[in-house]
Amino acid sequence: MKLSCLSVSLFSAIINGEMTIREYAHLCKKLELDGFDLGIIQLKNHTPNYVNQLNKDFEEEGIKPVMITTYPDFTHPDALQREREFEYLRHDIALASNLGAKFLRITAGQAHPETPVKQGIQLVVEYFRKIVPVAEKFGIKLVYEDHSKPGAWSFMDFSNPPHIFLEIAKQIADTSIGINFDTANILVSGNENTLEVLSFPAYYILFLL
What we know:
- By secondary structure, this protein is an alpha/beta fold.
- It has one domain: Divalent-metal-dependent TIM barrel enzymes (TIM Barrel), CATH 3.20.20.150.
- The chain is 44% helix and 10% strand.
- Strands 1-2-3-4-5 form a five-stranded parallel sheet, with helices on one face.
């Protein structure tokens, strides 16, 4: 089994410049991890010089990112904003590819009060399906997560409730999108039996280990 780490406890330090991404990569290498994960909010930009320097740092440290985590919001009530979110995700896929990552963690969107559950599910499935060819073009595996409330958002994750998460997972089961299952987020939803969620129905739950 290969191990990677998402630096949740170090997010602020990296964003504020108290720790560089290279220093984080060095720490992960020292811990004998096989790779590490990065949040999109930790990356300053996608300019050639910046990305090239990061790749040089990763090569010299002997370790590289495995997954980039991002926060698309496809449940936004504004149609134009949903299109912006799609374009942001296209950018994130290209950036993940440029950094040598294999996976890109995606979310459904926020639980906007104006967005009914049925409509939200339809929108998420629609945009997920539309982005798949872009990810496949760049060799990136998209993995859908049952999130809670990241700092980048104002509302909880639309698909934090297990029944919504499972319905979306069911409707994208025939695509190349995998599942990045976070047991803590299920607990946040109030469901203490994560095994129940994992086993119902088990045939479309894909694990990213």
